[in-house]
Amino acid sequence: MKKNVTLIFLLFLSLSFYGQNKGKTYAQKIAAARISFLTDQLSLTSKQAEKFWPIYNKGKSEFYAINKEKNTLQKNVNLKTITDQEAKDLVNKLNNLELAAAERKQKLNDDLTVVLSYKQILKLRDAEVNFKKKLLERIKKHD
Fold first, then answer.
1. What is the mean pLDDT of each run of 10 residues along the chain (143 residues)?
2. N or C: which end of the chain has fewer CB within 10 A?
């Protein structure tokens, strides 16, 4: 079973790099590969998956929004012209966003305990890292 899911995962990744339409379709293919990979790694039952994915997607969406805001603030700073007061304010905003991200991660973990065991939550963290590694390896092979 795991070999089949892994093959499907690799197929999705392969197709995503050879597809002509790189916009939304590319992101959808990666999302589908992530779903397949995480479902397999966590050994989710269909009942668990039905409850897991809405919670996970909502939490990740909120977490990504916080990180996007943080990244935007960091990218838009001009270190040559920023005043000390502006820098102080920016550092405080960035720290607050980092705290908000950590709180969102904690809330996601709390929300997931309704569906997953703590052992599965640890597996999820590991699986997310492994998915990113596999995706980056695949990208490097095609550059």
1. 46 47 75 94 93 96 95 93 96 97 96 96 96 91 78
2. C
**Contacting residues for 59 by C-beta, under 8 A, at least 6 apart:** 104, 105, 107, 108, 111, 112
Residue 81: helix, strand or coil by DSSP?
coil
Task: State the amino acid at position 90 in one-letter form.
Answer: L
- Candidates 28, 56, 25, 54; CA nearest to 121 is 56
Backbone angles phi, psi at 72, to 5 degrees: -65, -45
* CB distance 135 to 13 below 8 Å: yes
Distance, in Å, from the CA atom of 32 to the CA atom of 10, rounded to the nearest integer, reads 11
Is 13 within 8 Å of 33 (Cβ atoms)?
Answer: yes
Pinpoint the alpha helices (H) of 1-117.
Answer: 2-18, 24-42, 46-75, 84-112
- Name the token pair of 134: 């596999």
DSSP 8-state code for residue 1:
-
Question: Which pTM was predicted?
Answer: 0.75
